From TrEMBL:
GO terms for cellular component: plasma membrane. It is a peripheral membrane protein. Signal peptide: none annotated. PANTHER family: NITRATE ABC TRANSPORTER ATP-BINDING PROTEIN (PTHR42788:SF7), TAURINE IMPORT ATP-BINDING PROTEIN-RELATED (PTHR42788). It comes from the Bacteria. Keywords: ATP-binding, Cell membrane, Membrane, Nucleotide-binding, Transport. One of its GO terms (molecular function) is ATP binding. It is found in: Cell membrane. It holds the Pfam family ABC_tran. SMART domains: AAA (SM00382). This is Putative ABC transport system ATP-binding protein.
Length: 264
């Protein structure tokens, strides 16, 4: 479903600020894979996300989604294949529009455009049924402006908008990092349920090692633009934070620098 081949990019090349953000990254995900990505600040996690989504173009390498080479497709054209939830709860929704209008926009993402009515009775019922799944009472507030929702409610709505059209790839970019612990736990639980329900192929970046261990069937660790560790299946189930930190020190010969990765 996702095939990343030899992906590399250097920022500020030829200057004192030159940084090899990604170095020959290869990542292959089958349909239904749920891969969590961890690493310190500057490891290249968000850069990898931006390469897959199309907001950045690689110096070399290719990105294929469902066997289609999308490397040169702009972000807006790639959006028909990709659902994405960002760290900022404000980023994935239009605050001045209603819940219903936001859902209608998301629903149209991978549909052909036309002159049909945006929200009809049948579609409104579908929106209600999907909102009921997240257990926040939003199905009774379809005409409420999204800007009036709490951060957790907006992030839950963003997750629903990114998934209910069943995209080829779901990208979760530290989507619980800006929330308080209770809301983060709610969104983490909801994420697992939604991904499992739709069988979505999912790539999730997180600073929270425990979250990376709790979700998904595969885990990769990045450092300085490289994938330095990949585990899956029973090996992943047996992992602990302590074992991950030990593996980083064994591979890199030093301790991981980011406290956020340990403490979440």
């Amino acid at each position: 479903m996702l095939d990343v081949q030899n992906l590399s990019i250097t920022f500020n090349e030829g200057t004192l600020d030159e940084k090899k953000a990604l170095q020959h990254i290869n990542l292959h995900m089958k349909k239904g894979d749920f891969v969590t990505v961890i690493g310190s600040n500057g490891a290249g996690k968000s850069t990898l996300m931006n390469m897959i989504s199309g907001s950045l173009k690689p110096d070399i390498g290719h990105v294929k989604i469902n066997e289609k080479d999308v490397t040169m497709l702009p972000e807006y054209k790639r959006s028909q294949y990709i659902g994405r939830v960002f760290q900022d709860p404000m980023a994935g929704t239009a605050p001045t529009m209603t819940i219903e209008e936001n859902l209608a926009m998301a629903y149209a993402r991978n549909k052909k455009r036309g002159l049909r009515i945006g929200v009809n009775k049948k579609r409104k019922q579908m929106f209600r049924e999907n909102l009921e799944r997240i257990n926040l009472g939003l199905e009774n507030r379809l005409n409420a402006k999204v800007g009036l929702l709490s951060g957790g409610e907006r992030q839950a709505l963003s997750l629903l908008m990114a998934t209910f059209t069943e995209p080829n790839i779901l990208l979760l970019d530290e989507h619980t990092a800006a929330l308080d612990p209770a809301r983060a736990e709610l969104i983490t639980k909801l994420t697992g349920e939604v991904v499992e329900q739709f069988g979505l192929t999912t790539l999730m970046v997180t600073h929270n090692m425990q979250q990376a261990l709790d979700l998904g069937n595969r885990l990769i660790m990045m450092d300085k633009g490289q994938i330095i560790l990949e585990v899956s299946g029973e090996e992943k189930k047996a992992l602990t934070i302590e074992k991950l930190l030990h593996e980083f020190q064994r591979i890199r010969g030093k301790q991981m620098e980011s406290d956020r990765a340990v403490l979440g």
